[in-house]
Amino acid sequence: WLDAAGVSKGPIFRAVNRHGCAGAARLSDRAVALVVQSAAASIGLDVSTFAGHSLRAGFATSAARAGKPDRDIMKQTGHRSRAMLDRYVRGARLWDDNAATGLL
Questions:
Q1: CB neighbours of residue 55 within 10 Å
Q2: Crossing angle of helices 53-65/70-77, nearest 10°?
Q3: At what angle do helices 53-65 and 29-42 cross, to 10 degrees?
Q4: What is the pLDDT of residues 27-67, one digit of tens each?
Q5: What are the b/e assignments for 2-30, b being 16+ CB within 10 Å?
């Protein structure tokens, strides 16, 4: 993308006009949300449950599932507390170190 858009500095993700040329300004939060919702719609998901914020939550959840340390995830996402990070990844670690593991 960087080569195709001719990006060497400034925002990485930029609006692309109808002629396929990347602008200089960064994508707005609304533009990111529309891209995410369009992708969700293309695979038949309910777009009302997706937004640009879904990318941040998805990254945090995927990183947690991959066993990345909380400290490293927080550095990337900008979370300041583990409690807030846990709101993003609680489903990813639901069965980690579960007391019932191996009982049956």
A1: 14
A2: 160
A3: 70
A4: 898 999 999 999 999 999 999 999 988 899 999 999 998 98
A5: eeeeeeeeeeeebeeeeeeebeeeebeee
